[in-house]
Amino acid sequence: MKPLxxxxxxxxxxxxxxxxxxxxxxxxxxxxxxxxxxxxRGSLSDMNRAETIEETADRVTASGGTGIPVRVDHSVExxxxxxxxxxxxEQSGRLDILVNDVWGGDPLSEWNTSFxxxxxxxxxLMQRRAVHSHMITCYYGAPLMIExxxxxxxxxxxGTDYRYRGNLYYSLAKISVIHLAQAMAAELKPYNxxxxxxxxxxxxxxxxxxxxxxxxxxxxxxxQIDPHFLMSETPAYIGRAVAALASDPEVALKSGQALSTxxxxxxxxxxxxxxxxxxxxxxxxxxGF
Length: 289
Known about the structure:
Elements: E1 8-12, H1 17-28, E2 32-37, H2 53-62, E3 66-71, H3 77-90, E4 97-100, H4 120-148, E5 151-156, H5 168-188, E6 193-199, H6 206-212, H7 235-247, E7 258-260, H8 261-268, H9 280-287
Parallel strand pairs: 1-2, 1-4, 2-3, 4-5, 5-6, 6-7
Helix pairs in contact: 1-2, 1-7, 3-4, 4-5, 7-8
């Protein structure tokens, strides 16, 4: 079954990690997915990672959808505007799903450093990449949904509440997009457009696998370094969460909420790629996080 057959999605920040997992899962459900990001073949971003949006788009198509790679720096207004003009032109004005997963803050986060000792330039750039880019993207994407009086906007974040996350600039970025979803939900409600935030648990991304020196085949070995990693989840898990939300005819009831992969797995019954159902919420409670 292809519950999203005929639907059009934009996944901003689809190069790797959650964004790639989300794009592929939407493709599995039959959607046409515009996969955006800064890294393309022959020209990588300053993240200096090998993954590209073309690879993501190829995986979307291989999974059963239609993947369309578009190089976009979502902090540059003109590029974002051009993206949605292209979507409007190519899809007859249709946009059903918009996922904001742009981040780019890992190399900018200085952990165990007080905000007044942290690089201010890095802290401000983090907001530009991870908050301002989301605002710009929604500004140009939401009108396509408003015109058709339907659509789903998902803000990818870290956590479901407003608690401090160990670094002022990181916390500000992650909490800001939760409130962005909440505020957009209020203003979009009259137009039947849903906005919500979604967090993964401990994400077993490509970068995290590299950090621990493991692969997806032997990832459990990293538990010897960090036992919490044994409760990690692949990007496919959050991808399936997004696909489940996008396929739910009652998703509007969740508008304005901050949701999690583990709670949605409980509700919708999807699993991670290996058939497991990691529950970071229960684990964190047991560990006293």
